[in-house]
Amino acid sequence: MENKRKTIIVFSGDLDKAMAAFIIANGAAAMGDKVTMFFTFWGLNILRKARKVKVKKNFMEKLFGWMMPRGADKLGLSKMNFMGMGAKMMKMIMKQKKVNTLPELIETAQALGVEMLACTMSMDVMGIKKEELIDGIDYAGVATYLGEADQSNVNLFI
Amino acid sequence: MPEKHINCRGMQCPGPIVTLFKEIKTLEPGDIITIEVTDFGFKKDINAWCKKTGNELLSLEEKDNVITAKIKKT
Predict the structure, then answer these.
(1) Catalytic option among B5, B9, B13, B56
(2) Which residues of B touch A (CB under 8 A)?
(3) CA–CA separation, A36 and A94 (whole Å)
(4) Rounded distance between C-alpha atoms, residue A55 and residue A36, angstroms
(5) Domain CATH code at residue A27
(6) Which tens digits make up the pLDDT trace of A91-144?
(7) Range of the domain at B58
(8) Could you give the CA distance from residue B2 to residue B62 in angstroms, rounded to a whole number?
C-alpha cells in the first residue's frame, strides 16, 4: 500500500485530547505515513517550554501567559479535572500502566519526523513568542495547513 | 538469514508498532524479526501494520497473554 499523508489540527490544550492526537500521529508515522500536526489556539500550550522564557510582552500577553498551562506536563483533563487533581490521578494511573507520558509522546513524534506547525495567528493573539515554544517545530498559517490537508487522506480536528 | 527478537511486553499502544517500525529499518530485506507484545489490541494491529507497510506476517500466536508475531522484511 502506498504511503499517504495524515493531517491533524490540534486545537485543544487538554491533556487527554493532546495524548490522543499524539498517539494517532505516532501510530501513523510508524505505519510509514507523513504526518503534519497544526497547533492552534489552546493547542499551542502543548508546545510551550516548561521553563519560563524571558521575552518582551505587554500586560495582556503576560496575563495570558500566566493563566495558560506552561507546556505538555501542565495540562488539565477535558473531563473530571477537579482543579488539576484529576490530571494528577490520570498521570499516576498511566504511569502504573506504562503508558507513555505526553512529553515522551512528543519526543517520539519528533524522532519519527512528524511535522509540527504552530499557528502564527494564534501565537500573536495569545502573546506566545517563538522562544517560548519547543525546538524542532515550524511556524505557519492556514494556507500551509490546507496545502498539506489537500494531499492527506485523513484529517482530524482535535 | 539474520533474525532479530524484540521484547515489547508491557508496552502500550502505539509503543510496539513504533518500536517495530524503528527496528525493521535497521534490517535488510528478507530478514526476520520476532516481536512479543502484551497489549491485546496488537493482534489486530499487526495485520493492519503489515498490510500497510508491505512487510510479510509469517506467523501470529497468542500464549499466556503474550502475542508473538514473526515478520519478514520485504
Answers:
(1) B13
(2) 10-15, 17-18, 20-21, 48-49, 51-54
(3) 26
(4) 28
(5) 3.40.1260.10
(6) 999 999 999 999 999 999 999 999 999 999 999 999 999 999 999 999 999 999
(7) 3-72
(8) 24
